[in-house]
Amino acid sequence: MYDAIVIGAGVSGLMCANIMSRMGAHVLVLEKEPKTGGMLQGFSRGGTAFDTGLHYVGGLGPGESLEWIFRYHNLTGLPWKKLDYGEEVIINGKSYLIPCGYDNFAMGMAEYFPHQRENLKRFASELKSVSGGIRDLEKDRLPLYERSAAEFLSETISNETLRKVLTSMGPRMEMRSESLPFYEYAMITAPFIESAWRLDAPSHTITDVLAKQVTENGGEIKCGVGVDCITQNEVRSKDQIFKAEEIISSIPPANMMPMVKQMRDIYKKRIVSLPQTGGMFTAYLLLSPGMIPYVNHNISIDNKVFIHFNVPDNQQNWATTLEIMMPVDEWPQTRSDDYFSWKADLAGQAIAIAQTRLPGLSRAVKEIYTSSPLTWQRYTGSASAFGIRKDYRSVLTTVLSPRTPLPHLWLIGQSIGLHGVLGVSMTVLNTLSQIYGLETIRKELSL
Ligand SMILES: Cc1cc2nc3c(=O)[nH]c(=O)nc-3n(C[C@H](O)[C@H](O)[C@H](O)COP(=O)(O)OP(=O)(O)OC[C@H]3O[C@@H](n4cnc5c(N)ncnc54)[C@H](O)[C@@H]3O)c2cc1C
Question: Is the Cβ–Cβ distance between 251 and 258 less than 8 Å?
Fold first, then answer.
């Protein structure tokens, strides 16, 4: 009998297992894939590593939004490279460099939009106050979820182009004006206004470090063990049975529902029917050396294409690889001929758009690899980029409670609360606060 079983060895599952095992619990992590990492597992081709679900993080500077969590998990010592800007946003051919630091941000953006100076200050101060409250685990965030992000933007910023710039910073969330909650917008945007960082190592280094700590703390991680049945205090995978006091699941809740016995159908049906966010197409490019200069920030073009550079290992500062992401709402459902031509077509479009900012890109491409929502489905169990779509109009149904109707079965991960590395680490703290009590978790995190 374990104290806890954590289902899924992505960043949320491993952070959860790390905290619990550090607090003395005997923890077992079960992962269906042959390796840990989940969305961060990445891949390599011909010895070159490519990142899948992490291209940068925000708020890693001292005292900022993510730093205290990463410090707890011993992740601040990884080779983080600070980026020059939060983002470069290009709209209709004009480039806007988003400075980091709330004051710099407001002043820098006011140079592009002088009449919006006061509005930018208000925008920055609202985001700062929301992200500044991140350590307050007790705070009721429902009112922040119930506010519309689009309304916040139109109330704060009166210039339409500036609003576009402020909603085009990275493919970090779905910018659906009819549903996006203010809290999601603020918490995904603010850390990158604080500071932006790229890891000079494959992104699975983060989950490798977490997994190592879990085992050093006495925890166990079993990969290649897909959970297919959950009952109270018990988890099954084919013919294996594991028992625990608490079961904490980081897998997409809709996938989990059919596995759970002893739960009312009405709850299961509600969870399965929740809309999911759209998918992501990515073209991973291997470049000929000496053709495309390395850019030390991410670039967004017309909110369609998002370019991420990997830190090159040469001294000349030429890019050797880069990734171009494109959010997609529809995609072929099977790996048919249509699917392969759809991918080739999107890769061509992605490179053509990226080339407007990076002249000579298509000539520099040596190899192209692609991933689609079907790839995500295959490796993580979900085609959706950011899990359940949160909706400010129906917060009580779309922002799930960590607690399920089955006693001792809990939820964490990107479908609960917020997505992104910062977002899912907060889902872990919220869930653990319910299991252990707020004070215990506060003490553990030195809050
Ligand atoms: C293209 C893209 C780019 C992104 N870029 C960034 C970025 O730059 N910065 C950032 O902060 N965030 C980024 N994100 C978001 C971030 O990657 C995710 O929010 C985060 O990794 C989710 O972690 P998780 O633990 O909730 O889920 P996952 O990583 O999906 O973990 C769930 C795990 O459960 C396992 N599992 C599923 N079913 C079972 C089962 N039946 N039994 C056992 N195990 C199971 C899966 O294999 C997986 O390992 C990006 C996302 C996408 C799609």
Answer: no
List pLDDT tens digits, range 238-262: 989 999 999 999 999 999 999 998 8
Judged by DSSP in three states, 325 sits in: strand
Going from the Cα of 69 to the center of ligand 1, the distance in angstroms, rounded, reads: 18
Confirm whether 2-38+61-77+202-275+388-444 and 99-193 share one CATH topology: no
Residue 93 has pLDDT above 90, yes or no: yes
pLDDT tens digits, one per residue of 344-396: 999 999 999 999 999 999 999 999 999 999 999 999 999 999 999 999 999 99
- Quick check: CB of 226 below 6 Å from ligand 1? yes
- Cβ neighbors of 249 (< 8 A, separation 6 or more) are 6, 7, 8, 230, 256, 409, 410, 411, 412, 413
Please tell us whether the domain made up of 99-193 is placed in CATH 1.10.405: yes
Domain ranges of the chain: 2-38+61-77+202-275+388-444, 99-193, 278-380
422 in Cβ contact with 54 (< 8 Å): no
Q: Quote the CA–CA distance of 407 and 404 in Å, as a whole number.
A: 7
* Candidate CATH numbers 3.50.50.60, 3.40.50.720, 3.40.50.300, 3.40.920.10; the one for domain 2-38+61-77+202-275+388-444: 3.50.50.60
- Ligand 1 centroid distance, CA of 10 (Å): 6
Torsion angle in degrees (nearest 10) through CA of 45, 53, 324, 176: 160
| Residue nearest ligand 1's atom 5 by CA | 54
29 lines ligand 1 (CB under 6 A): no
CB of 13 closer than 6 angstroms to any ligand 1 atom: yes
Phi, then psi, of 273 in degrees rounded to 5 = -85, -5
* pTM to 2 decimal places: 0.96
**288 alpha carbon – ligand 1 mean position (Å):** 31
CA 279 to ligand 1 centroid distance, Å: 13
373 CB near ligand 1 (under 6 Å): no
Best of 28, 54, 310, 376 to mutate for ligand 1, by most ligand atoms within 8 A of CB? 54
Quick: pLDDT tens for 30-76: 999 999 999 999 999 989 999 999 999 999 999 999 999 999 999 99
